[in-house]
């Protein structure tokens, strides 16, 4: 089928799917929005987030004439209220923006940054440095590093919102924060996911008086169905609204309080902890008010690769998202996936992921000279594609390629290097917003793991991140992700915007730690190569090959059920997703919007907003003007 026809057919299929439930989603801003609709089609603007309150906030802004950037900030701020364990002003993220007026894609790197005083040995327990062991022993990832001041990076989210609004918005922070302030004051209804995430963090949250007071009232997680209010956060947002991020967050009393919460977390003594809650070590950090004052977001060029006629834009380093998704697509472009059966196509997807991950590990970090151009060069991808055996999985880990010498011709296979164990976690949140003018925002934001560092800044209503755990735990001089003062830890966040002939086609992203990259890649392959519409591409079972030395492919149970036997035949080792920290055996919580031109000259851009039907309890897609239900 020709490309345009295939695309229209898929759009029609998705429209049909959107209407099978008979509901087009809550179109207006519901004062206490709880209804979740995973797919909805229409015009005039669209949003997809994990949460109906956040989606309703974006729709409210769009309806009042705000643009996609205004709506994205409103939704993100609302997620800071309703998803406080995944994202908020205590964290960072990456903002990708397609500007309809110029046809350009812009990005903001709002990643958290290591304090100036963070030394290469920051993750070594000083108590273990002795005459016999002068190098000392690293802290354990858990509990020491995850619940600590030492892992808190200088937050980038308030500065990201401010910069996005200044660059492209029509509202100021004051107006953009208004819906979130309303939700924080009047409260939202606690669901299973919120309660469970609180319970999963109970031991960590109980360590800190500020966190226990806010999230464990009466010693327990808030009950399902109760209304959770966060007046402290509403006040903090009001402060930002009045003074701006620079004056209200990165300077003044709040900056001092953040620094002191990092240097001297508000701990309860061991005997003040509830019965059965162990006293955790909680290493302290070095962040000062000067670190906050020095923080700046980076406006930077996106990565770009072309894939089967589409242009795929992503985040350049400090995230590894854009280069790794891009390289994998360049590799996959060498194969006719659309003509393969599903297991064969998935085999290629898994192998391309492993190769791209090998290069991510060797070359990508927040260091000068990352070979972004080579990693996203289709000649490099072509050469890497030589290493895929169409019938058998390569032994893992596969070795990185040589970005300094490649010509697209198949080389002899180099010896494999071991890839470090990956310690990234799954939390974070993602949102996609578009407006009636065709501007599009794809934004992933995080406080790292669910519950971040566990430290609420006393009286301020938000949790500080533990993003610096994304640095390599073991320091090596040749590792681009080694700890250094003032540096940003490597991310996997992959907010992605796909254009076709310069117009938006698809915007997508997801949380999920280092599985983010493969989930975004898999959804693009599902949509462009495997004949799925956008809802199906999102809902399809997922698997993630990250080039671990064990060779294992982290997989959702449905993926194992559907493809396990066939992929075993290729030599893949599928293991169920989920670990001690994450009760759910699922990968990611994606959001997306697909676009198609309206009918006729000047026809309105049509949008299909898609959210997760079930993962993380299901997401929330909304449009400003739902399309009329097609007659049967
Ligand atoms: N810290 C992760 C990253 O930057 C994101 C965390 C997550 O998605 O769980 O890649």
Automatic annotation (TrEMBL):
Catalysis performed (reactions): an S-substituted glutathione + H2O = an S-substituted L-cysteinylglycine + L-glutamate; an N-terminal (5-L-glutamyl)-[peptide] + an alpha-amino acid = 5-L-glutamyl amino acid + an N-terminal L-alpha-aminoacyl-[peptide]; glutathione + H2O = L-cysteinylglycine + L-glutamate
Molecular function GO labels: leukotriene C4 gamma-glutamyl transferase activity
Keywords: Acyltransferase, Glutathione biosynthesis, Hydrolase, Signal, Transferase, Zymogen
Tree of life domain: Bacteria
Pathway: Sulfur metabolism; glutathione metabolism
Post-translational modification as stated in the protein's UniProt record: Cleaved by autocatalysis into a large and a small subunit.
Coiled-coil stretches noted in the UniProt entry, renumbered to this chain: none
EC number(s) on file: 2.3.2.2, 3.4.19.13
Gene3D superfamilies the UniProt entry points to: 1.10.246.130, 3.60.20.40
Signal peptide location: 1-23
Membrane-spanning residues: none
Region feature Disordered, mapped onto this chain: 23-47
Record note on quaternary structure: This enzyme consists of two polypeptide chains, which are synthesized in precursor form from a single polypeptide.
PANTHER family in UniProt: GLUTATHIONE HYDROLASE (PTHR43199), GLUTATHIONE HYDROLASE PROENZYME (PTHR43199:SF1)
Family from the record: Belongs to the gamma-glutamyltransferase family.
Protein name: Glutathione hydrolase proenzyme
């Amino acid at each position: 089928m020709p490309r345009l026809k295939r695309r229209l057919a898929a759009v029609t299929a998705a429209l049909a799917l959107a209407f099978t439930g008979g509901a087009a989603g809550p179109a207006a801003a519901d004062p206490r929005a709880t209804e979740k609709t995973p797919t909805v089609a229409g015009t005039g603007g669209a949003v997809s987030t994990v949460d109906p309150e956040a989606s309703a906030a974006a729709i409210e802004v769009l309806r009042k004439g705000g643009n996609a950037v205004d709506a994205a900030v409103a939704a993100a701020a609302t997620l800071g209220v309703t998803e406080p364990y995944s994202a908020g002003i205590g964290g960072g993220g990456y903002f990708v923006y397609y500007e309809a007026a110029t046809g350009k894609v812009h990005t903001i790197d709002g990643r958290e940054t290591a304090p100036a005083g963070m030394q290469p040995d920051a993750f070594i327990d000083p108590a273990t440095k002795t005459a016999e062991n002068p190098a000392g022993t690293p802290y354990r990832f858990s509990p020491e590093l995850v619940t600590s001041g030492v892992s808190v990076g200088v937050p980038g989210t308030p500065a990201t919102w401010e910069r996005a609004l200044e660059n492209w918005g029509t509202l100021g922070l004051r107006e953009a924060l208004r819906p979130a302030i309303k939700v924080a004051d009047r409260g939202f209804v606690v669901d299973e996911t919120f309660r469970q995430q609180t319970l999963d963090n109970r031991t960590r949250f109980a360590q800190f008086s500020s966190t226990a007071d806010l999230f464990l009232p009466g010693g327990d997680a808030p009950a399902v169905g109760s209304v959770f209010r966060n007046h402290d956060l509403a006040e903090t947002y009001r402060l930002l609204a009045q003074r701006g991020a620079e004056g209200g967050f990165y300077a003044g009393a709040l900056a001092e309080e953040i620094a002191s919460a990092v240097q001297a977390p508000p701990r309860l003594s061991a005997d003040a902890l509830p019965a059965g809650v162990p006293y955790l070590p909680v290493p302290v950090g070095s962040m000062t008010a000067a670190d906050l004052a020095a923080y700046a977001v980076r406006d930077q060029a996106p990565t770009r690769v072309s894939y089967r006629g589409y242009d795929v834009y992503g985040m350049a380093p400090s995230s590894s998202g854009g280069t790794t998704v891009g390289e994998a697509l360049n590799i996959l472009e060498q194969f006719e996936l659309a003509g393969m059966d599903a297991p064969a196509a998935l085999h290629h997807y898994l192998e391309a992921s492993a190769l791209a991950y090998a290069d991510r590990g060797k070359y990508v970090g927040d260091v000068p000279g990352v070979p972004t151009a080579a990693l996203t060069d289709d000649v490099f991808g072509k050469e890497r594609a030589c290493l895929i055996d169409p019938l058998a999985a390569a032994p893992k880990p596969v070795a990185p390629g040589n970005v300094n010498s490649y010509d697209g011709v198949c080389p002899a296979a180099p010896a494999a290097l071991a890839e470090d164990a990956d310690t990234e976690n799954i939390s974070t949140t993602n949102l996609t917003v578009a407006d009636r003018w065709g501007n599009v925002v794809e934004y992933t934001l995080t406080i790292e793991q669910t519950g971040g560092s566990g430290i609420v800044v006393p009286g301020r209503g938000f949790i500080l991140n533990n993003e610096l755990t994304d640095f390599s735990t073991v320091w090596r001089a040749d590792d681009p992700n080694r700890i250094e003062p003032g540096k940003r830890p490597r991310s996997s966040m992959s907010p992605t915007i796909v254009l076709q002939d310069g117009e938006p086609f698809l915007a997508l992203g997801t949380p999920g730690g280092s599985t983010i990259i493969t989930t975004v890649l898999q959804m693009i392959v599902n949509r462009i190569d495997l004949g799925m519409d956008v809802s199906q591409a999102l809902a399809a079972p997922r698997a993630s090959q990250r080039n671990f030395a064990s060779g294992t492919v982290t997989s959702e149970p449905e993926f194992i059920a559907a493809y396990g036997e066939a992929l075993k035949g290729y030599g893949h080792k599928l293991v169920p997703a989920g670990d001690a920290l994450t009760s759910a055996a699922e990968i990611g919580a994606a959001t997306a919007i697909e676009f198609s031109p309206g009918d006729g000259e000047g026809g309105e851009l049509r949008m299909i907003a898609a959210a997760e039907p079930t993962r993380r309890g299901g997401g929330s897609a909304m449009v400003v003007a739902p399309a009329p239900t097609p007659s049967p």
